[in-house]
Amino acid sequence: MAYRVTLIPGDGIGPEVTESTRRVLEATGVAFDWEIAYAGADIMDKYGTPLPESVLDSIRKNRVALKGPITTPVGHGFRSVNVAMRKALDLYACLRPCKLYPGVPSPFKDVDIVMVRENTEDLYAGVEFEKGSDEAAKLAKLITQAKGERVRSDSGFSLKMISETASRRIVHFAFKYARSYGRKKVTAIHKANIMKFSDGLFLAVSREVAQEYPDIEFEDRLVDNMTMQLVKKPYQFDVIVAPNLYGDIISDLCAGLVGGLGVAPGANIGDEIALFEPTHGSAPKYTGQNKTNPMAMMLSGVMMLRHLGEVTAADKLEGAIAEVIAEGKSVTYDLKPETATEPPVGTSQVADAIIKKLAKK
Ligand code: NAD
């Protein structure tokens, strides 16, 4: 029976990388019945919203979705569709494996890190008070009354909220993931020395939850130290769990360690629903050029296959992608070393090369 999956092409380079991913997934022999759902900047005029309720309904019904990137205009227009989607579907865990495949130009060796990022709160919750607004003035007054702190009258505010509930479930998620995938260690990241009531809470809960998983090693690191450690000795990390904002930044750093956003897959997961999408955004300047790397989205497809229990197909597709990378011929510009003599290929040619490999497996 075919798997019914919601397929969201997104905008910018989204439709190109999505189409290439659809082709390689079908070439694994697993049958899919795609329910195509449109969201993003391109449908604003038609639907009056970048995120029609029908898209969320489709995901709720199918419980599995594969999504291309969606643009968030800076400073104006709609709040991020991606954040809204994660909130509406309570996709509280963002999972981003960062694995270095042989052949990827990188100064590092042996990187195989899985980043688990809390997805629903922290500074990302979008609770903000604009400079000059009545609410900002009220908040400033409250802070002065409650804490004796003077607040500049021209301040804007973004609130950082970290709860015990969300911290507990994300740390459990990280440990359960570590157990299921034979990982040895979980590292929690924070800045608890300074932000005692938000990051401090996250750390306290992490330590408590860790005791329920004695088979998995646990450690914690300050986020600033973590960035340095990651670029000096990335091989010492296995699974990393972090609150939302640090998770966002550190996962891009980890993507950089393994060759960049072109090979960084991801998933947003809740108790009922899993949505797979690359870490990268819509890279608007490359739209329609058949230029960008579809492998991040294809590797997100590999994660989806594993989630569906199609482990053999997942291994086959990951193997085919790894072979194409190792050969270094049919890869996009981001995977070509500076010394390469042959030009890079386009998005759809990467898919062609992977489909050829799959046919031989
Ligand atoms: P981006 O990830 O879109 O692109 C940054 C740069 O990374 C690109 O210019 C390109 O050089 C490189 N890059 C990205 N994807 C690549 C690929 N597949 N192959 C090769 N190179 C690639 O980040 P941005 O420019 O900061 O964001 C653009 C838009 O995407 C913004 O509106 C942002 O909000 C949105 N965004 C969406 C998501 C999502 O849909 N989940 C994630 C991140 C950013």
Which helices and strands appear, and what pairs or packs with what?
Elements: E1 3-8, H1 14-27, E2 32-36, H2 44-47, H3 53-62, E3 64-67, H4 81-88, E4 93-99, E5 112-118, E6 128-129, H5 134-147, E7 157-158, H6 164-180, E8 185-190, H7 199-210, E9 217-222, H8 223-232, E10 239-242, H9 244-257, E11 267-269, E12 274-276, H10 295-307, H11 311-327, H12 347-359
Parallel strand pairs: 1-2, 1-3, 3-12, 5-10, 8-9, 8-10
Antiparallel strand pairs: 4-5, 4-11, 6-7, 11-12
Helix pairs in contact: 1-10, 1-12, 6-7, 8-9, 10-11, 11-12
Nicotinamide-adenine-dinucleotide binds at residues 17, 69-72, 82, 261-262, 277, 280-285, 292-293, 296, 332, 334.
The order of strands across the largest sheet is 2-1-3-12-11-4-5-10-8-9
Overall number of structural domains: 3
The number of helical runs is 12
Bound molecules: nicotinamide-adenine-dinucleotide
Q: Could you tell me the mean pLDDT?
A: 94
- The CATH homology group name of the largest domain: Isopropylmalate Dehydrogenase
Series of H and E elements: EHEHHEHEEEHEHEHEHEHEEHHH
- CATH architectural grouping of the largest domain: 3-Layer(aba) Sandwich
The fraction of residues assigned to DSSP E strands is 15-25%
- What's the level 1 CATH class of the largest domain? Alpha Beta
Question: Helix coverage percent of residues?
Answer: 40-55%
Apparent shape: globular
Q: How far apart are the termini?
A: 22 Å
